Structures are given as structure tokens and as C-alpha cells.
Amino acid sequence: MERAPVFSFRGVVYSYGGSCSPALSGVDLEIMPGEWVALLGANGSGKSTLAKICNALLLPAQGDCFVLGMDVSAPENIPLIRQSVALVFQNPEDQIVASIVEEDVAFGPENLRLPQAEIRRRVDAALELTGLADMKRRGSYTLSGGQKQRLALAGALALEPRALVLDESTSMLDPEGRASFLERIGELNTHGMTMIQITHRMDEIFFASRVVVLQSGRVAWDGESSDFWDGPYLSFDFEEPPELALYRELKARGFVPSGTIPRVDDLLESLWL
The domain that contains 107 carries what CATH number? Predict the structure, then answer.
């Protein structure tokens, strides 16, 4: 049986008041269960607007958006959509509402009016998944930037969403915190979580299964991440990661085939073979 998309955008248009041009101007896009989609684009290309429509924080001015088969424009669907699609934003402090770690994670499930035993189960599971179980009684204000971002992720996971949307969630992290955060979300994706990751860091694309590029509110490119590095990448003015320079040199010398993902470990394995 054919799987239904988690997100389906059909001619979606959205404009902010006072803007002379729409933030989104006819987006057609489908994202399937279990995909990890890297969403790229320059500032103002519409990435964050698209992310907020995924969670029904914004509603299309024109066109249709369906999340797990539910129309985001139908008021009766909004509570379930927001429970099913969790957003994690750039600044974790914008999402931390309680002074104690486990109380912050419990905030979402408590708003769902779940039984206390179920809240406890979800909080413990989310803290374990994000590596914060030993810090559950810590003050949230004492955490490092990376730990706060993992706390924001734990709060999102406590809702037990079907999909996760990350809007520049690693941009304020140091290298160690970013690596830890990416490892956590990678484990979630391995277990079937559908993810949209907005990022400006090209090396993070190596973890995604698919790349979507927005330009001026439209989809300018959409395809597998491995295909992105074999030509389409050159059409966009993105900062080049050092791994890509190595990939091109090895490919030119015949050491790696087209379609190889330019992660350092993969390149070294190809070179060794």
C-alpha cells in the first residue's frame, strides 16, 4: 500500500502584512514518512514561514497544506497538528518556560491534560533520549547552550510528535554541542521520525536524505542529498564546506563515484577501497 505524505503543500502562498512580495509564492512539495529533509535558502527565501505552516502557526493565504492528511486551515485540526508536529527554534531560551529541567519537559504533556503517570513516562523517556536524565532536577538556567537546546528538543519530544521541524536549531551551538544535538536527532530519524531541518551549515546536509532549496518563496531544487553535490550545488551561492573540496578532488581523480555523500568518513572509506 502506498504511503501517504506527512506534509503536502499545493500552491501555497503566504504574505506578511506590509510586505510588497509574498514570503511563499506557490510552493508545491511533499515530504514522506521517515525522510530527513534539509531545507536551504538565503535569508528571506521563505524557510521559516514554511516551517510555521507545517505546525499551523501560520495558515496559507492561498493553496492547501495537509499535515498527516489534516487540512491546516480547518480550526478543528489545529490542536492535533500542533501535537503531531513539534518545532524547535534557533534560540532554546524562547522555548524554555520552567526553572527546573523536568518541569519544563512536562509543560507540554500537562497542557494536554494527560494522566500523571503518562506525563512521568513521557518526561523520563524524553530526558533519556536527549541525554538529560541525570540533570532532571537541575535549574534550566544553569545549563550550557547545547544542553538548553537538548532541553528544548526534550520538551518537543514529550509531545510524542510524528514529525520534527528544526529551524536553525544548531546555529547557536559550539562544535561539541552541535555534534551532540545532531547525534540525538539522527537517532530519532533512524527510528522513523520525519524531520525538516532548516540550516545554513552545509556540512549538516550530509546527514539528510533529501535537500530542498527555496528561492524567493519557491522550490528551486528538490532531490536526494547525494545528487545535490554532483552539480546542482554549484547553482546556488552557498558557503562551501571543506569536505566538498576534498570530494571534488577525489572525484576528479576517480577515487569516489558520483552520488557519494561527501562526509569525511565516507570519503576515506571510498579512498581506502
Answer: 3.40.50.300
